[in-house]
């Protein structure tokens, strides 16, 4: 007997060990760690960080080196100088036109340059580039900031989606409990009518009505089970865990959280939202782009040094030189003036976009607040409906037991209670979702 008890306990412990219970907070943590969309946003942030590091290298000299090695199958200079008499210079320039003495030159073959080895190393330091290097680095830094905001925005969206899926799943599971309670009522009613039928106190149609209701309930249970499984799979995919039938998304008992129904917001209630910061950064980015374009139209000054090594005609030689270059892009000024006007228009578009979306965000806050208040009122209405349905069912049960009403009236009262209970559960879960949406609209979800 003791051995059997130990085996049963071991089996229970084993079953519990396989169950994976995940709370809402755990879902959020897993989503932040495993969600693929968030991982992609993090990679984009890392990419922009590398762009920023790359832009910083523009402050340093550009170093270039190279070598040329040449070997030809014949001399590049291969000539024959004929024999001739060359005048002899006696030191008097006047005699060069009418020389009287000559020296015989027997002629020779001239063969030069059958190979060349050349190597060079140069370093060029930009001194003034019209501010392009400085503004380019600022733009790269802004890219990091924008991608950081995008990543946080993506995290908020995934957290919002996680909450919606979680509470929708809770609502469906609560409906399973409601169906179980309804099923118990039907089973009890079925037994009572069955006993009454065999006793000749009830009609066959009364029994069939209850059985049809039970069949309908089983069909609803099957649909609900399929919906729960599919929603569980979607939630598992969102938080980045493998789906398993052992996974159970747990939750505390649903409760009503009181809020102030009259919420007041100032005109800058959206100022904490990442979308607002990104819109402002977009304006700053366009301003920097305009400055970079202007810098391309200004003179560019660079200085540099170069070393040159040459091995030609069996002689080695090394030279060093320093240089400075000044480039003035005169032909670009006409085109550049139009480019500057184009950037100014883009700045004005970004400013208009900021103003328009600020108004939209304010409307989103107001709408989210109204929906949150409405969800609270729906909870109150649904709670009242449940209490009324319970009272109606109790009165109907007394009348049914007294034989004053039909079976269909009893079934209708039970169905009414089930419907109001589902509405109350939906109202509670909707309220949880609306709370998260309200926080997100104000940039306070995290």
Helix content: 55-70%
User: Helix-strand pattern, N to C?
Assistant: HEHHEEEEEEHHEHEEHH
Could you tell me the strand content as a percent range?
15-25%
Write down the CATH topology.
Outer membrane efflux proteins (OEP)
Specify the CATH class: Mainly Alpha
Largest β sheet strand count, sense and barrel closure: 4 strands, antiparallel
Tally of individual helices: 8
Average residue-wise pLDDT: 86
How many domains make up the 3D coordinates? Answer: 1
Molecular structure report:
The chain has 446 residues and is α+β, with helices and mostly antiparallel strands. The protein has one domain: Outer membrane efflux proteins (OEP) (Up-down Bundle). Residues 4-17 have low confidence and may be disordered. It has a four-stranded antiparallel β-sheet, with no helix packed on it. The chain has a two-stranded parallel sheet with strand order 1-8. A two-stranded antiparallel ribbon has the order 3-6. The chain is 63% helix and 17% strand.
